[in-house]
Specification:
This protein is α+β, with helices and mostly antiparallel strands. Helix content is about 35%, strand content about 20%. The strands form three sheets. The chain has a two-stranded antiparallel sheet. A two-stranded antiparallel sheet has the order 3-6. A two-stranded antiparallel ribbon has the order 4-5. The relative contact order is 0.18. It comes from Pseudomonas abyssi.
Length: about 190
């Protein structure tokens, strides 16, 4: 009986499989790449002033826009602290992304801020004639002060969703994951 025998050395294939399994067992490089992408995507979101689904954020109220001294044309950016405090953290197999600012949630979801009754010292500018102006001034510009009681009031903050991923972002995050798997499977490293 005639025959043929094929001897196959699978050590190279097993090495690639082991390398891929090792890379997939530690997803932290993948998650860091995703975190970096999310930082860029959210920077672009603040620049375009849109929600993850592409809808423009609700405009500032005319009264607030008149009072706002800096960045008058920018929503959710007085000093830039919300946009500039975005961060990610890789914790095992978890990627955490967001802001550590306590007001981040109310700007994202919207809500009501109830301000309680309070007494405080108010500062005014007194003219040479003795007349006292009817506008508050900073303490350093004041020459007249008195205690006032300010009644309780509410501030309504509209929802301006800023945190999340768009369809394009989800597609890019998927591509990052697929590229990571491809590189791990072909032995080029994560």
């Amino acid at each position: 009986m005639a025959g043929a025998t094929l001897e196959f050395d699978n050590s190279q294939a097993l090495a690639i499989i082991n390398q891929a399994a090792q890379a997939l067992g530690d997803p932290s490089p993948l998650l860091r790449s995703m975190g970096e992408y999310l930082l860029i995507a959210h920077d672009q979101r603040f620049a375009s002033q849109t929600s993850p689904d592409g809808k423009p954020w609700q405009a500032l109220s005319p009264a607030y826009q008149r009072r706002k001294k800096k960045n008058r044309d920018k929503i959710l950016q007085l000093d830039g602290h919300l946009a500039n405090t975005l961060l990610y953290q890789v914790n095992g197999a978890d990627l955490l992304f967001g802001s550590n600012r306590i007001y981040a949630a109310i700007h994202h979801f919207g809500g009501t801020i109830d301000v309680a009754v309070r007494s405080q010292q108010a500062y005014f500018k007194q003219e040479r004639s003795g007349a006292i102006g009817n506008r508050f001034v900073p303490k350093r510009k004041s020459n007249f002060a008195q205690w006032v009681t300010i009644g309780n009031y509410s501030i309504q903050i509209p929802a301006r969703p800023w945190l999340g991923t768009s369809d394009t972002d989800s597609e890019e995050l998927t591509n990052i994951a697929l590229d990571y798997i491809r590189r791990a499977g072909f032995g080029t490293g994560p």
